[in-house]
Every structure is written in structure tokens, then in C-alpha cells.
């Protein structure tokens, strides 16, 4: 069917015809063409050819050339749907891809995963903040990251690896939370526990991984048994590696930081995590390295701690100590930081007779910095009360002996603060109190005046006024010393005493030092050196303590020479014992005194014991207790004139000197009792020899008992001296005087070779000068 020249299908024609006929369904009017339409009652009077007549025809014609417009929202919705579908497909693809990479990690052992993924350096800084009964609060600074590339096995060649790397960078970081971290040694001995806060670690896909600084506060709870910690440290030092077994009951890893949103959906939880850490111990400065094929020797910690300076200050309330010590930083790459609190210690002396050490001082360190290469310690404290018995104070005596001899002395340093942490036992470290650069010269400027040598019967006595300057070392200049008693033990020399006096054996370990007791004790006598020093002829040692007085120095110089105190004592009637085989030196000295206008110079050198009170030192229950210091070196000179010789029957210069019988003196040299021969008096030979010598009558010596029984005549005036009277002539009436008998001459020839016994054999032999005896003090 064709309508208006249009080719339409039958269904379209029927639809079009139906739509065109719908308006005339209720009327009987037939379709007419526009030109033949009859007039009806509805026909308007004024018809319009443009509207009414043409509308039905136009509506009934098919509109072939018109296009339907689609709304823009339709296109936007379609595009959004397509994009959303692509994104969802991409997300699903990424999720399944990431899951394919992550799912093997979920089945991996936590220890292997931790070693593979965690990369860290440090700690670069370590600060101790405080310690309480809960433990030690520390602040640790280091650098760490999670190596996502190594953990997931990513590469830059595959598309999926790039996609997973992109996803890891979008996550950015992970948050790690753990329960208490327990640390065990190589043999599963419990050492410590750590309580860590929640840590946020960055994820890195670069090579090498980029580390970021991290600072955390850690609560360290050490083991109660300190011996286990010491055993682990010793084993680690010997092997050069510290092996730690770390165990964590529960670990939780969450994606992103705490404020993340969708990243929290990444959630991994592990249980019973165990990791083995092997820490290599680097070489420590000042300690020799380990041998190639053997364990590393135990370090000598005493040689590492160096006491740079120290000073003893006077009270109040007691003697105070300040000083500075240094020690090398054992781990310079790790221990960088500070300890912002004071650490108390107790300094003790090793025991001698008892089992327990003797505490002598309590000190504490100021907040210190962990620097490289050395760590400096500022120390302050006070001296503890000392025991009142000599047996208990024996370690102090040995310490003083080493100090006076410029030898290092062992000490014990005990950590006192471990009790606050609930640790059973104490950690004691052996250290060494360093020796002085030079031996302390306590007794200086010894002045001997008003010396008198008195002969009473067969014994020679000496009296003098002794004044000495006690100058403590620089570290002890501020303390107050009051000397109350002295006990000298000296050798007397014909001339000045040697500067390096004979008791100067550096290898000697003879005892000297300090004693304290309620009763005064007698110091041990000084052993005589072997061989005897040159020009030494007598020994002075009193029988008891000599009361001394102390006077504060008036001049205080900057060079410390005038500081200290002056001690003076009056030595009266002290026995002067002639040394074995030194009668010739004594005879020569007396001749110098008698016949030289200025007298003779005498030197003394030896040791002296001094009892002194130290201000602020508590001994027993008494403050400023009295200590007996013995073995102090003493040296001085004095001039002895003719007026100082009392009780001697002095002959003329031409006459000989009658010496008394010299008694034996106690000595440690193994010799027999000396036998003193009786002097033999013979006539003096004529001054001018003649051709025919005139025989002289032989003078018989008097019995020895009579010589010993005859006392020496005391002079009324000590400044006027008499000479033996010349024998009177037999008959004064004879005009020609007979020759005057000459005074007898003593025969001392047997004394030049030493003392002989009754059989004429020499019993005192001096050994070579290379062999020395151990002496009272090693100076």
C-alpha cells in the first residue's frame, strides 16, 4: 500500500491510518480532500488556508526527515558506568594480584619474615632516662624500614610486580604492636624483657631501601640474677659474637598509621614469634684483639678506667671526694647519647685477712654523655667511717703503703643501685687506683738543730731538735693534719746523706702504711740494707714514741711549696748504735768534730712513723681519729761542733781517741756477736829518728775489766775541755831533764778489715753492691 507517495510497511501503514482516522470515529463524515470538503455546522465562517485546512493533512503525513535527540545525562551515566566497571575490575585485579603475592607470606615463619623484611641501623643514640623498681627507662634512636621489594619478591620487569609496588607505596607504612619481648641467651637463660610501644614503620620499594629515623622509649626489665648477665657477657666477649634469642608471644601488623582509614583493613596477626640475633662485638680501644685461633682473653677492666684527677676536700660534714675519670667507649657506633641520672657506687678495698672487702667511700656520677672515643665521668662523694681495729684497717694500711711508694693499688667498685631494680646480688668490678707520677715526698725540709752526742759509760746517746715540713700531695692539700707523735728510725752518715737513699728498691714489697688501734703500737724496725751504705756509721732508733707538735705554715705560696704543716719534736737521749764494721767511720767523724773549727756535717736518712689526726675522718665512733702512718722517708743534715760533744775525755790533737766498748746492736744481718779487742797503748815513735834507736820500755796494757769499770769523768763546764795531763818527771831537781814519755797510741789496725772472732777469722763480710735487702718501704 502506498500513501502519499511513501513506501511504508503494512504495519506502519496500519498504524498511520489508524492514527489519522481516530478523530472521525464518532462521526459519519468521510475523508475528503481539502479542496472538496463540504460545509457543515462546525465549519467556521472564516476559514484559514494556512492552519485549519492544512493541519489534518500534515498530521497524517509521515515525518520521514525528523531525528530523535538523546538526553546528555544518558551519555554521562553510560560513561560513568563504564568507568566504574573498569575501576572495579582493576581493584579486583589488584586485590587478587596482591593477595597472590601476600598469601605466601602469611604461611612463612615469623622469624624468617622478620629477617627478610626488617632493615635497621643503630641504635645511633641511647639515653637512659630513669630507673625505678619497674625497670630502666631508655630512649633509643635509630633508623628502620620495611623492605617491601625484598619481602614480596618484586622486580621492575613484570607488570604485576609494578602494580604490587604501586599498591605498597599507596599503603605507605605499617603499624607494629607486640606484647612483652623476652630476651634469652644462647643457652636459653633468661636475661631481660622489653616493653615496646606501638611503632610505625615505613614501607620502601626502592633499592637500596631508604631508612627513616625512629625514636622509641623502651622499658628494660633485667633479670633478677646478675650472675647470668655477667656469664653471658663473658661468653660473648670470648667468642666475639653475642647471640640473643628473642621471643614474642603475639605480634600485630596493621596497614598505615593509627589515623588511617581503609588501610586498617590490612591486618596480619602472628603468635609465638622467635628471632635469633647475632651481634658481632667490635674491637674496643685499649684492649688487645683476639688471637687468630683462640678465644679472646678476658679484658682487664682495671686498665681501662683512668682516674684523671681527684681531690679530697675538708668537711663539713666529713671528708669529701671529687674527681674525674675516663674510660673508652666500648661500642662507639652504638653508644651515643647520654645518661641523664646519677649512678651511685661504693668503692672498697680488697680484703687481706677477712672475707669481706672494706668500704672506704661512696660516690656517684653526674649525668654523663656517651661520647667517642672516651666517656668522661664526673665523680663526687664522701669518705665512709673506718673501723677502729688494726686487723680491720689492714686494707687501708696496704693502700697507704702503695700510695706512699707510688704503686697502683687495687680497688673494688660495686654498683649499689641494682637493689632498686629488684636485682639479687651486686655487680662488682675490679679497678685500679693509679700510682702517682712521682713518689709523694711528705716530709720535706727536715731541720736538725742543737744536736748533742753524749757518752755515758759505754753507751753513746744523741739529742736534737727535729723540725720537718709535712706537705701532702696536691690532691690532699685541703685536709687538716695534726701530727701528735713520731718514731724515727735513721742511719747517721759522715757527711750528707745520699739523695737516693739506700732503701730505694722498686721491687720491694715490704709493708708500710697506716694503723689504728686504741693502744699505741710499735712500728717494725727498719731492716738494714745489705751492703751498708757508704759513710753510714750509726743508727738512731728511740725506744718509744716521741711527742710532737704541729704548727700551720704561715707562708702559702702558689707553687704549693709553703703549704702543709710544720712538725717539730725534741729527741732526747736516743741510743746511737754503731753499725757493724763502721768503727773507723765513727772515729773519723769524731775527729772531724773535734779538730775542725767548723765541726763536721752529719746526715741522717731513713724512715719515720707519724701519728696524726685527720680532720673530718671518722675512725670507729670518734671523729678525727688518730692514724699511725709508718714507713715515711726522712732525710736531713746538720752540723755537729765541738761544743756538742758531752761526756768525752778529749785528748790533745796528738793523742789518740779512746772509744768505749761498742755493744752489739740488734740487726737482721746474720752475723756472729762482734768481739771488740782491747786497745793497745804503745809509745809514740820519736819525731826525729837517730842513728842508734833507743829501746823504749814496753807498756803493759791494763786489764779489760778495769777499763770497763773505770768511769769517764764528767766535765763541769760543757764548753771547757781539758786534755790528759802529761806525766811528771821522776826527779825535778835534776838539772838535765829526762825525755818526756810520749802518749800511748791506740792500735786500730785490726778494725780495718772488719771485726774478728776469737780465732782471728773475719766473720763480717760485705756482699756485692748488686744485692739489696727488702726494706720497710719501697721508695
UniProtKB/TrEMBL annotation:
Which stretches of sequence are listed as region Disordered? 1-62, 680-760
| Composition-biased stretches (Polar residues) | 26-57
Ordered alphabetically, the record's keywords are: Membrane, Transmembrane, Transmembrane helix
Keyword Membrane, does the record have it?
Answer: yes
**What domain of life?**
Eukaryota
Transmembrane annotation, as ranges:
79-102
The annotated regions of Basic and acidic residues compositional bias extend over 735-745
Q: Compositional bias (Acidic residues) at which positions? A: 702-723
Q: What is this protein called?
A: Putative transmembrane protein
Q: Which organism was this protein described from?
A: Rhizoctonia solani 123E
Amino acid at each position: 500500500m502506498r500513501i502519499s507517495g511513501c513506501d511504508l510497511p503494512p504495519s506502519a501503514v496500519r498504524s498511520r491510518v489508524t492514527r489519522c482516522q481516530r478523530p472521525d470515529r464518532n462521526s459519519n463524515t468521510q475523508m475528503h480532500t481539502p479542496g472538496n470538503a463540504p460545509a457543515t455546522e462546525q465549519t467556521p465562517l472564516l476559514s484559514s488556508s494556512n492552519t485549519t485546512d492544512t493541519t489534518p493533512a500534515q498530521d497524517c503525513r509521515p515525518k520521514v526527515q525528523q531525528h530523535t535527540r538523546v538526553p546528555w545525562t544518558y551519555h554521562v551515566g553510560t560513561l560513568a558506568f563504564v568507568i566504574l566497571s573498569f575501576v572495579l575490575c582493576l581493584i579486583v585485579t589488584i586485590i587478587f594480584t596482591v593477595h597472590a603475592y601476600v598469601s605466601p607470606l602469611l604461611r612463612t615463619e615469623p622469624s624468617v619474615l622478620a629477617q627478610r623484611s626488617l632493615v635497621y641501623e643503630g641504635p645511633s643514640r641511647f639515653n637512659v632516662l630513669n630507673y625505678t623498681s619497674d625497670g630502666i627507662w631508655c630512649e633509643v634512636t635509630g633508623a628502620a624500614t620495611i623492605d617491601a621489594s625484598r619481602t614480596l619478591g618484586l622486580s621492575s620487569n613484570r607488570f604485576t610486580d609494578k602494580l604490587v609496588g604501586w599498591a605498597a607505596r599507596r599503603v605507605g607504612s605499617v603499624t607494629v604492636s607486640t606484647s612483652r619481648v623476652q630476651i634469652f641467651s644462647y643457652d636459653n637463660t633468661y636475661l631481660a624483657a622489653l616493653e615496646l610501644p606501638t611503632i610505625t614503620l615505613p614501607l620502601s620499594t626502592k633499592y637500596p631501601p631508604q631508612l627513616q629515623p625512629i625514636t622509641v622509649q623502651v622499658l628494660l626489665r633485667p633479670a633478677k640474677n646478675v650472675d647470668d648477665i655477667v656469664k653471658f657477657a663473658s661468653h660473648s666477649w670470648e667468642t666475639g659474637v653475642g647471640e640473643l634469642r628473642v621471643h614474642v608471644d603475639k605480634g600485630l601488623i596493621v596497614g598505615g598509621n593509627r589515623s588511617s582509614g581503609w588501610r586498617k583493613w590490612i591486618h596480619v596477626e602472628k603468635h609465638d614469634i622467635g628471632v635469633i640475633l647475632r651481634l658481632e662485638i667490635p674491637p674496643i680501644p685499649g684492649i688487645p684483639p683476639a688471637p687468630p685461633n683462640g678465644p679472646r682473653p678476658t679484658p682487664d677492666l682495671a686498665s681501662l678506667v683512668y682516674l684523671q684527677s681527684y681531690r679530697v676536700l675538708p668537711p663539713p660534714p666529713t671528708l669529701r671526694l671529687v674527681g674525674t675519670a675516663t674510660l673508652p667507649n666500648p661500642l662507639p657506633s652504638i653508644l651515643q647519647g647520654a645518661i641523664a641520672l646519677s649512678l651511685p657506687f661504693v668503692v672498697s678495698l680488697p680484703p687481706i685477712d677477712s672475707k669481706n672487702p672494706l668500704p672506704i667511700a661512696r660516690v656517684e656520677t653526674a649525668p654523663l654523655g656517651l661520647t667517642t672515643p672516651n666517656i668522661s665521668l664526673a665523680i663526687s662523694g664522701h669518705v665512709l667511717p673506718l673501723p677502729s681495729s688494726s686487723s680491720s684497717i689492714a686494707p687501708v694500711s696496704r693502700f697507704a703503703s702503695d700510695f706512699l711508694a707510688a704503686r697502683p693499688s687495687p680497688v673494688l667498685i660495686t654498683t649499689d643501685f641494682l637493689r632498686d631494680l629488684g636485682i639479687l646480688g651486686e655487680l662488682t668490678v675490679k679497678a685500679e687506683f693509679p700510682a702517682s707520677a712521682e713518689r709523694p715526698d711528705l716530709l720535706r725540709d727536715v731541720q736538725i738543730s742543737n744536736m748533742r752526742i753524749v757518752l755515758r759509760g759505754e753507751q753513746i746517746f744523741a739529742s736534737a731538735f727535729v723540725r720537718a715540713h709535712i706537705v701532702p700531695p696536691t690532691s690532699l692539700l685541703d685536709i687538716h693534719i695534726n701530727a701528735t707523735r713520731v718514731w724515727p728510725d735513721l742511719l747517721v752518715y759522715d757527711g750528707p746523706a745520699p739523695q737516693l737513699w739506700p732503701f730505694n728498691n722498686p721491687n720491694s714489697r715490704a709493708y708500710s702504711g697506716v694503723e689504728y688501734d686504741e693502744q699505741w703500737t710499735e712500728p717494725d724496725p727498719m731492716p738494714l740494707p745489705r751492703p751498708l751504705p757508704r759513710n753510714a756509721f750509726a743508727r738512731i732508733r728511740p725506744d718509744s714514741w716521741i711527742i710532737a707538735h704541729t704548727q700551720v705554715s704561715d707562708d702559702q705560696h702558689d707553687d704549693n711549696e709553703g703549704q702543709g704543716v710544720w712538725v717539730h719534736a725534741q729527741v732526747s737521749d736516743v741510743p746511737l748504735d754503731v753499725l757493724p764494721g763502721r768503727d773507723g767511720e765513727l772515729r773519723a767523724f769524731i775527729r772531724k768534730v773535734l779538730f775542725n773549727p767548723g765541726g763536721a756535717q752529719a746526715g741522717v736518712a731513713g724512715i719515720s712513723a707519724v701519728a696524726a689526726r685527720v680532720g673530718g675522718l671518722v675512725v670507729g665512733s670518734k671523729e678525727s681519729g688518730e692514724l699511725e702512718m709508718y714507713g715515711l722517708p726522712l732525710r736531713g743534715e746538720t752540723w755537729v761542733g765541738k761544743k756538742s760533744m758531752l761526756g768525752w775525755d778529749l785528748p790533745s790533737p796528738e793523742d789518740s781517741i779512746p772509744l768505749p766498748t761498742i755493744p752489739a746492736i740488734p740487726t737482721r744481718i746474720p752475723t756472729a756477736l762482734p768481739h771488740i779487742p782491747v786497745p793497745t797503748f804503745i809509745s809514740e815513735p820519736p819525731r826525729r829518728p837517730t842513728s842508734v834507736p833507743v829501746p823504749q820500755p814496753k807498756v803493759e796494757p791494763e786489764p779489760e775489766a778495769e777499763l770497763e769499770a773505770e768511769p769517764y769523768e764528767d766535765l763541769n763546764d760543757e764548753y771547757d775541755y781539758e786534755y790528759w795531763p802529761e806525766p811528771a818527771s821522776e826527779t825535778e831537781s835534776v838539772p838535765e831533764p829526762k825525755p818526756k814519755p810520749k802518749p800511748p797510741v791506740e792500735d786500730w789496725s785490726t778494725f780495718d778489715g772488719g771485726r774478728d772472732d776469737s780465732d782471728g777469722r773475719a766473720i763480717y763480710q760485705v756482699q756485692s753492691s748488686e744485692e739489696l735487702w727488702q726494706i720497710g718501704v719501697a721508695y
